[in-house]
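Fig. S4 source data, part A: sequence.
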Amino acid sequence: MAPITEVEGRRVALSNLDKVLYPETGLTKGELLHYYATTAGVLLPHLRDRPVSFLRYPDGPDGQVFFSKNVPPGTPDWVTTAEVPRSEGPARMVLVQDLASLMWAANLVTEFHTHQWTAADPDEADRLVFDLDPGPPATVVHCCEVALWLRERLAADGIEAYAKTSGAKGLHLLAGVRGASSERVSEYAKALAVEAERALPRLVVHRMTRSLRPGKVFVDWSQNAARKTTATPYTARARAVPAVSTPVTWEEVAGCRRAEQFVFRTQDVGPRVQDHGDLLAPLFERRRASALP
C-alpha cells in the first residue's frame, strides 16, 4: 500500500518513492516530488485556475509517455475540476489549485501543460506565447537571437515579453495580453512570425514543414490556439535528464553562447528562485497586460 502523507489537511497517497525515473542522473520519484514541493510557491500561480493537460511518464522518459486531458480515473473528490469547451463537446479537466493537488498530480509523474486562458474565461486569452524550436544543427543559442528580435518587435506594439527555457531544446516567450480571443492572438502571433522570417530569412521559419526547419528556428505561433497547451513554467520534462522549463533573464538570453548554459535541472531551480524570485511574476499583474494593436 502506498504511504499516505497529509498535505494541508488532505490525505495524499505517494507511491514508489525509491523508483529511479531518470537513469542518467539517478533521480528518484521521491526526489522529483521533493522538487515540486519546494518549488510550489512559484509553480502554483502558473497552474492555478488553468485547466491542466498531463503528459505522463510513470516509468521515466524511456517508458510509455502519453497525454491525459480529462480528469484521470481515481482523482480524489477534493481536487478541483472544471468543465471546459471543446470542439467535440464540453469536457472536464483538472485545476491544480493548491499544494495538496500539486502533490497528488506530481505523484502521477507528469509534465504540466496549460492553456493560454483560464477556466473562468475560456473565450479570452490572457497569455501570448511563442515556442522557439531549433532544427539541428541550430540550437537554443539561435533561439536566443530570434527571441531578442521578437522582444523588440513586441515592445514596438507595447507588449512586454518574458523568456523561459522549454526544458527541452528550445525557448518560450510569454506576454500578458487582454481583450482578445485565442483566435485573434493566434492571428497576431502568426503575423509576427511571418515578419520575423522576412527580417531573419537565414535564421527563422514560420511554417511547421519539417523539410524547411534544419538549421533554422521554427517560430511556433500555433500554441496560442484555444485548444493548445504549452509546458508550464517550472515543470520538469520527460527528457534524458530532469531538465526544467525555467524562466531566464534577458541578460542571460543576450549572453547565451552555448546550449549547455540553458539546461537547468531540478537541483538548479531552487537557487535561481532564491536569487531572482519568479522572473515571470509580472505576468500576474493585470495592469501590465497589453491590448493587441
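Fig. S4 source data, part B ends here. The helical segments are 29-47, 99-106, 140-156, 182-199, 250-254, 266-276.
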